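Lab meeting tomorrow. Look over both lines:
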Amino acid sequence: MDLELIGLRAPVRRSRPVAPGPFALLSLLVALLPISNPAVWAGVIVACNAMPWLLGLRARRTGVWRLSAAGLERLAADGSVVEAYERDRIEEFSVTADDEILTIFHKFGSTTAGTLTDMGFDPLTFYMTARRLGITTHVIDGDRSVFDEGDLPAEEDAPRALGRRAEQRLRDQEATLLAVAHEPYPAVQTTRATLGNPVTGRRRAVALGLLLALLALTMLARIALDGALGLGDRVMGGLWAVVGAVAVLGARRRRLTSAPLSWSISPTELRVRHATVAEWRVRADHVAAVVVGPGTAVDPVSGALTGRHTVVTVFGHRLQVLARLPAQGLDVFQLTHALSERGYQVVTPDQGARRPSQYGLAGLPDIFARVPGGRLVVDEDGIGWADGAGDVILRMPRDRIGGMELLTVDGHAWLRMYDDDGDEFLAAPLSMLRISRTDLRESARRMRLPITDAEYDAYVNAAFHGSMTRIEAALDPSITLTPEEDETLPPVQLDVPRRTRVLAYAVTATLCELVAVLGSIWLRGDLGGFWTSLSWAAPTGLVLGLAGTWLYDRNRPQLRISASGISSVTRLGRTEWSVTRQALGGVGIDESEAPRLVVWSPVGRVLRRVSFPPDLGELRRACERHGLPWGPPDADHGAAPPPEL
């Protein structure tokens, strides 16, 4: 079997400056040198800033690591072997989970090859490839210090056990890949899905950086053309040179970090295009499964390898790696569901086995089964398990409770509890805990314990506030409803709070005034002095700041809530997006990455993420009044009330 794994390496077609920071500081020092000729003085400064880019053109192509039947090898750019660990000399691989350092064990001892990230490997692909090549591989919890002789226990102490939780997770992913490698997985949707990362202000930032660099070059040339180079002129020229170098580097960084990334997913092909790296096309009939999660990728700015990016690893039917596709900046939820709906088997690192709706007392803590007539109780001290006489046998203090969640699984009410670290430590149906959903919810809220029942709240809000108009009309005879008003309520349009708008105006005006003051200091010699230049620069900066904020504010998007759904409209009346009531499953706040307003579908899929923050109190009241469910929906049930015992 011809099996090999090639590590990643940075593309070489992009020019990367070598040590631009030190050369920029060197240009400042050169500007202070007593060079009498102005042309030579300006040329030396420009040469210092151009030198990093010239050195980047001569940068050699880096090598690549390869794991194959011949062993672990490091290849040069021309394909020659620079460093090799032969297969017959390798007895075992060990990788530490925290720092991913690879240790090679052989009959004469051990050696450290480096980190998997620097070698261009991912833990999962390296682990699977090494095992298929017949090399014993272990993943050890912790860092490289577990192998250091100074940290070994004394001879009289018992040998300590090495944790293998990380290895077990890799084994689970490997088992999942083996199980789905040859299983047919039909596509639910045949339409092409297009995903992309949000790119805002990229061209403007690049253009601003280049214009600032051109301004710095112009000012440097003007100082040189004046002839007389005093100390002030030399300092000003060096500062302009540093500003130009920083502007160019900032524009380059902005261009590379915010480069457009587009995914085109269809049942027949995967097509990924990164504006500054490459383009990939993978046929669907060659793909057995895809793994979505953190992995090794090339940093677009420095060209170094990093392991903090989101990567999609594509495996073939022989579990060989077909491609490693970048997905940084994409919504992982949307990406995984788009792949799964179009016939691709998706495996994620945190993909656990689903619990059945009922599994008896064997799945609960042992104390539950040993206490006859036991039941769950809620009091001021927290959550406890009481016996038939009411005495609490086991208690979870309230300071240890991180959260409780009530949900519905296969038609049965369930409780999930999390500790203060956010880890789930209990998940059981309420029938096994012998407490009703209403009693648990009301008791926990009365004792101010952190509990959520989003499904029940959404149902109550939709059921109660859907008839609010008719109730008000019945109580107040002066209110008369037309047939159109009897069917729908007037829509509510929500804007960002006034305090946020005033703060945006103040911050923008302050930044413009700061730029005006700095410009007056730098250009005071050319504009008649500091106070003269400030007298017209300060009002101009204030007017520009307020005018720019007003131009953005006059067409800012707002939320429109109505009985027919939720939409985003601008103040000029243009609709950016709209979600109808039939396609709406819930509206609420998602705090998984950053607190933001999210619109869910009835099956729990994120439809929209709202970047501007409206007043949450008014938003919830508007959703309740128009019957829109507040909170994330339950994926398995519609508008039926949650089950009670």
